[in-house]
Design brief:
Bound molecules: adenosine-5'-diphosphate, zinc ion
Largest sheet: 7 strands, parallel
Structural class: alpha/beta
Shape: globular
Strand order of the largest sheet: 11-12-10-13-14-9-15
Number of strands: 32
Strand content: 15-25%
Number of helices: 21
């Protein structure tokens, strides 16, 4: 598992340091030396205090990272910090995790701090709870008969209103009913009411409850019960667990009851979910179950709410934090468990800037804090499966679906030599018709949005390609145009073939829009709901579609992976996968693992209620051994075989990778630079006897994107430590290299894709 290269924290709590090493947001990994300001902070100079400093001509917010006794610069050249923002340093658990992250991912500490804090903190806002005013009756107010106020009718009404609310009312709730501050102040002047300031987030809700539960637990089935019992044993110390349970087996119910145990012990819980998995349904389930303050961190949360959430979690007031990957950086005073749901999901890895993996950091954090970490999935990552098989993780299974629902059956549909309409074979269309007649819902899964993947000329074979990228342009109908999904460049539709002038230009293949259109024509009496990135641009589009689906009447859902994850569709009994082939033969060594996971996720949408579900998998390779294994023996068997292949090929999780990516408008320049860097690295590996392979440079799978050329150098090692030594050396080399300034480069530790 994760071993930290160097965990010692060089910063003592207090040091009579004459120089402050400040981490400044930006790409540079060095700390910058400043002198203490004349007025020391209230509790002395400490690491973790935010300061404002003059940096070039700008004022920036940095974090004190080290107290140094001397500087490598002449002291007279150092500037004092402009201002100290915090009285107290940022939370210790948070500082520790940021330092680890910066070191592990070879990233600037200043930038790591900046990315790990809410944007308002980055801008220098003070870290304190936002408060609101709550009004309630005084003893005298309670003893006063409202009618005794005579003719002051508004004041009488106000007193009556507050008398109905034993725990008082917040100011805005009172003014929303038409009362004014002046009326409140008048009553306060007569000693009948008074007000208190309370934090906006994480204050006890209105009603006084006993315990943490707002609604009762479900009674667990045997498998769930055994899993929960195991998880209980892990409380109070670091115990990583893989909870492998088929879709609908009730993993979430197990998380909820584990969290309950943590809350009962006074602890807090952190729940990480994939980007697409953070649905209102999921949030609602937590909100309904627990009667404790909860913080939800998702893309719809405002900056102010983020700051509140950060503060409420740090102080311990918020008891549950649920969020997408960046929520791993939420400081928590009494963290008792971390749960990573759908742990295999790619959205836990950030793909630019600070390229961290939130699941991996969850394990690191759990170990550091001595708490259990639960990774849940129906289709675990090969990384986690290996840890589980080799005994580093407890491995728990849920084989049965909870409740009464049946698992879905998978069938391949051979597309070879068959006509398709809107991407669908006759067999699939017949199956759809049957299900609709039975009154069921059907889900059609296509991983391409737009009308068709591209436009082609039937006379000369011309294809609509993007001028800026090595990619085809997607045909869209609304509005009608060609769009490149890699650079967003658009072009009007040509009337004739730009190459040969023929008028026989036709869409090639099917995207969600085309299938939607075809299904609309075939089944005019049934609503067809398309769900993809384009159709959900409008804010309420998704929830409106979900409302229709939940009504349970027959309907057709057409969508991309936005539909495949996180949703429960109890009335869907048939899933059609339009094209299973793209993932089977992709170049990336993880493509097969990822597409198998996606297929099983999609399949999991079917047959969640009483009726058994069916999944039709359209393919031109019905004899593909991997596909057959998946269909006949299931994901665990396929995963075993893939693990064995990875072991033989010495690929992750049986080795460790780092990818140096570079890009520039000039192809030669990128290649030359990587050749030079690669040569220097190989020399260094030899000289220092580091057991690391350096492969490449090679062009990226899509070499030209937005008119820039992308190429890469791959580092591979059996031992993580060796890889890290090499990576650290490499980053230093690139930072010092003069030619590097003329192109863009980045180092990705544990990349999950080679693109
Ligand atoms: P998963 O997270 O594994 O996909 P969920 O926890 O969402 O599964 O459970 C799937 C469905 O089964 C949900 O509707 C849930 O309410 C129900 N369920 C889970 N556990 C039980 C149980 N012990 N008894 C009855 N229903 C259950
Ligand atoms: Zn042509
Ligand atoms: Zn493009």
């Amino acid at each position: 598992m994760f071993r930290v290269p160097d965990t010692t924290d060089k910063t003592a709590a207090y040091l009579p340091g004459r120089v402050l090493g400040i981490a400044i947001p930006g790409p540079l990994r060095d700390l910058f030396d400043y002198l203490p300001a004349r007025n020391p902070p209230r509790h002395g100079w400490q690491a973790g205090l935010r300061v404002r400093v003059e940096f070039g001509r700008r004022q920036l917010v940095g974090v004190i990272a080290e107290l140094r006794t001397e500087s490598s610069f002449p002291m007279e050249k150092l500037k004092p910090v402009t201002e100290v923002i915090d009285d107290e340093p940022l939370p210790a658990d948070w500082l520790w995790l940021c330092r680890f992250t910066a070191r592990y991912y070879q990233h600037s500490l200043g930038d790591t701090f900046a990315q790990a804090m809410p944007s308002l903190l980055r801008q220098g806002r003070v870290l304190e709870a936002r408060t609101r005013e709550r009004w309630h009756l005084t003893d005298k107010g309670r003893a006063t008969e409202p009618a005794s106020l005579g003719r002051a009718t508004r004041q009488i009404a106000l007193l009556e209103l507050l008398a109905q609310h034993r725990h008082g009312l917040v100011h805005t709730a009172i003014t929303a009913q038409g009362f004014t501050r002046q009326q409140l102040e008048t009553l306060r002047g007569r000693d009948l009411i008074t007000s208190l300031e309370e934090p906006v987030t994480g204050t006890r809700p209105e009603h006084a409850h006993k315990g943490v539960l707002a609604e009762p637990d479900l009674s667990l089935n045997d498998e769930q019960g055994r899993a929960l019992a195991h998880l209980h044993e892990g409380l109070g110390h670091f115990s990583p667990t893989l909870l492998e349970g088929v879709t609908g087996s009730g993993k979430t119910e197990v998380y909820l009851q584990l969290i309950e145990a943590v809350l009962d012990r006074g602890g807090q819980a952190l729940v990480l979910v994939p980007e697409i998995g953070l649905t209102p349904q999921t949030l609602e389930r937590f909100r309904r179950r627990f009667h404790v303050p909860q913080v939800m961190l998702h893309s719809g949360v405002s900056d102010g709410e983020r700051l509140d959430g950060f503060e409420a979690a740090r102080s311990g007031r918020a008891r549950i934090v649920i969020g997408t990957r960046s929520a791993i950086f939420t400081p928590m005073a009494k963290l008792g468990v971390i749960i990573v749901d759908e742990e295999h999901d790619g959205s836990f890895k950030q793909q630019d800037g600070l390229r961290y993996h939130a699941r991996d950091l969850a394990l690191v954090r759990g170990k550091q804090e001595g708490i259990p970490v639960v990774l849940g999935s129906a289709t675990p990552s090969l990384e986690s499966l290996r840890h589980a098989r080799e005994g580093r993780f407890v491995h728990l299974h849920l084989y049965q679906r909870a409740g009464r629902s049946q698992p879905a059956r998978l069938h391949p549909i051979d597309l070879r030599g068959r006509m398709t309409l809107g991407g669908l074979s006759t067999q699939s269309l017949e199956a759809i018709e049957t299900r609709l007649t039975q009154g069921d819902q059907v889900l059609v899964f296509i991983n391409r949005r737009g009308f068709a993947p591209t436009l082609t000329c039937h006379a000369c074979g011309w294809l609509a390609e993007c001028d800026n990228c090595d990619a085809r342009m997607t045909l869209h109908r609304h509005p009608p145009q060609l769009t490149c999904h890699h650079c967003e460049r658009t072009r009007p539709l040509p009337d004739a073939c730009p190459a040969c002038g023929s008028g026989d230009v036709r869409p090639q293949g099917a995207g969600t829009e085309r299938t939607e259109e075809l299904l609309g024509e075939k089944f005019p009496d049934v609503p067809v709901l398309r769900i993809d990135r384009d159709s959900t641009q409008r804010k309420d589009a998704m929830s409106e579609a979900l409302a229709v689906i939940r009504r349970g009447e027959p309907c057709l859902l057409v969508g991309t992976q936005m539909l495949a994850k996180g949703h429960h569709f109890p009335h869907v009994t048939l899933v059609v996968v339009v094209n299973a082939d793209s993932g089977l033969y992709a170049a990336d060594f993880r493509a097969l693992e990822q597409s198998a996971q996606l297929l099983i996720q999609v399949a999991g949408r079917a047959g969640r209620a009483e009726r058994p579900g069916e999944v039709l998998i359209q393919t031109r390779h019905p004899e593909d051994p991997n596909l057959l294994t998946l269909i006949q023996a299931g994901y665990p068997q396929l995963a075993s075989e893939l693990l064995e292949e990875r072991r033989v090929a010495q690929l992750p999780p049986y080795s460790h990778l780092a990818l140096l990516r570079a890009e520039a408008p000039d192809q030669q320049q990128v290649e030359q630079w990587l050749l030079k860097i690669g040569a220097a690295l190989r020399q260094h590996l030899t000289d220092s006897n580091l057991r690391v392979d350096c492969l490449g440079p090679v062009p990226a799978p899509m070499e030209r994107r937005q008119n820039r050329y992308h190429a890469q150098l791959l580092l591979r090692a059996d031992k993580r430590g060796a890889l890290h030594e090499a990576a650290a050396w490499l980053v230093t080399l690139c930072e010092k290299d003069r030619d590097a300034r003329r192109l863009r480069w980045s180092l990705d530790i544990d990349p999950i894709g080679m693109a």
